[in-house]
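Key idea: predict the complex, not the pieces.
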Amino acid sequence: MLAVDNLSIIYNNNKVLDGFNLTLEQGEIFALLGDSGSGKSSALRFIAGLDSTDSGSIQLDGQQLSNHGKHQVSPEARGIGMVFQDYALFPHMTVEKNIAFGISKQPRIKQKKRIKELLTLIGLEGIERKYPHQLSGGEQQRVALARALAPSPKLLLLDEPFSSLDKNHRVQLVAQVRDILKQTNTTSILVTHNVSEANTLADKVGKILNKRLTIK
Amino acid sequence: MMGLLALVVAMPIIAVMLSWLLPEHELWTHFSENLLSSLIGSTAILLLGVGIGVTLLGTVLAYLVVMVEFPGRKWLEWALFLPFAIPAYVLAFVYLGVFDYSGYAQVWMREALGLPGFDIRAGSWAIILTFVLVFYPYVYMMTRASFKRQKINLIEAGKLLGAGPFKVFFKISLPLARPAVAAGLLVTLMETLADFGVVSLFNYDTFTTAIYSAWGDFRSIEVAAQLASLLVLVAFFLIYFEKRARGQAKYYSANVSNIRPYHPKGSVGWLITLFVFGIFMLSFAMPMLQLSIWAWGAFADEWSDNYIDLLISTSSLTIIAAMITVIIATTLALPGRCKRGSIWLKGMVRLATLGYALPGSVMAVGLLYGINQISVVNVYFGGESINHIIYGSIFLLLFAYVSRFMAIAYSSIDASAQQIKPVFTQTARLLGASRMRLIWQVYLPMMMPGILAGGLLVAVDVMKELPATYLLRPFGWDTLAIQTFELSAEGLFERAAVPALMMVAFGALIMMVFRYLDKKSYKAS
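Result:
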């Protein structure tokens, strides 16, 4: 279970997000809507432990990750996965190596099995040896998702993951990603500015309006 | 830690500047009263002449090659880069060997044409011409790249407004290319200022030769350091000048066009070909041919087992220096958490990478001076002089190479590090990677093309480095560059051609190794 308590985001001495509270049950998918500059991506980055801010506490599965804006657990140790808008697949690694990056401590055979499993899940069997530049945008995004899911994160953050794709692919992929997240029972937060994307993917949709989060 | 590393690399520069704290008065007075004004004069004339010459030649060649269609343009565009493969002092001795009083060009002029002979070393025109032919590729290279980036519609707009080729060149193309011309000019002037080989062969006095004279003839490392510090000031001034010439403007646009606006009629095109080809012949083909002819004739006399030692010391110095430089430059360029905000670290990196603006002689003198001071302090506290240990090892020489060429490696490696977007770091961290793993599996592989390119450039430069090697090499560590220089300084041009050609071949070999490694690393990305 995730609990975010009283998170504020400040840009250039200007509070853009104030008193953000959120609770998510295991396996629940939440979509966060907001205009650009509304602090939604910053909120995500704070939850991931990448940026800090002056107020906000995070609890995940009973563990205190951040307290009053200070991070107690580093991003490396949080068990939070993230998918970025521009995929950020390592260009010098094959699909297989990319997916294995977060599970490198597991024995080889287990890694291989997990990679196969994930490729089946995202519907891209047989591309283990390909490099990211040999894949289409949609394929890259699915591989990025598989990479983030590989260590079975307690929470998955998706920062505008579909916005670099064209419309037809997007509609298809959004539905597919929802299936994947539901199958793996992964608690997730999606940040987007696209309402239909949010409605299709999420169980619960929130919107930032006038610095405040309202949940529908 | 990283700041300290940068500080160590910058030590020669700092040592030279500190020499004013413990100045040597008597000899300095002699130098400043008798020599300084003529040194400043001759150095200024040289810089001015070379500056005007390379600017004219480099920009005109670049403009012709990019904007005008003429027969043979395609391969001449690349052929004009080739003079980079020949060290300046090698070209200088070839020109001397051919055009000197006893060279066959002058002998033929006197005997066949009955013209009076002349002294090629008198005045400064010959040395200026030599430098121009050696260094024009810098201006050519940078200006050409800038012309290529200029939007074709800007030029077409100019043409539609009724501007002819000359007006387009002076009013549109040249002003747009100004930052590139300035950058090329800066490198040229720095190299001219730093040069030791060409000026020695031409018996031309500059700051660099004065530094050697202070150390070699007068055994005063203090005065050498004081003179070197003036050179540092000139270098600072040149960098400042280039920054101003570049200005605030950003002139680049990404779209590259291959359309050439000018198709000169018949004979004009051939005249342009003749001109560009002539420059190529003068600056590369004829010197290479001459070198080959000389080397062919002298090889049997010149070759001895000694050359095996020369090859071994040249290659080991090159490899070791390139590796150390690349390792330090990579460490400094790695994307880091603490790096972004630290002004101190940024300043240190700036200082450490200033080396390229500074002659090898400054590096050498800075090191000798610094070690000497340490030794003096050591003796003062009852210890032994450490001079003999240091002077007898290759440590100082390697140090000088690393300091001198740090900037080249750093700029290449840093450029590749800049392309690693923060999102890669964040992804890796969220996937639980430690800093070590991040460096080994993400940063280094992604920086590899830059690391290889930096290593290549450093290796080629170390291989042909002369001024610092000349001062700092321990006994038994002569390189091909030293051998070439010493033979040509005695006028033994035929014999000097043998090690000179070996250097050119060595450079080509480094290039091939680099291309092989580069292809391998690119396969992945």
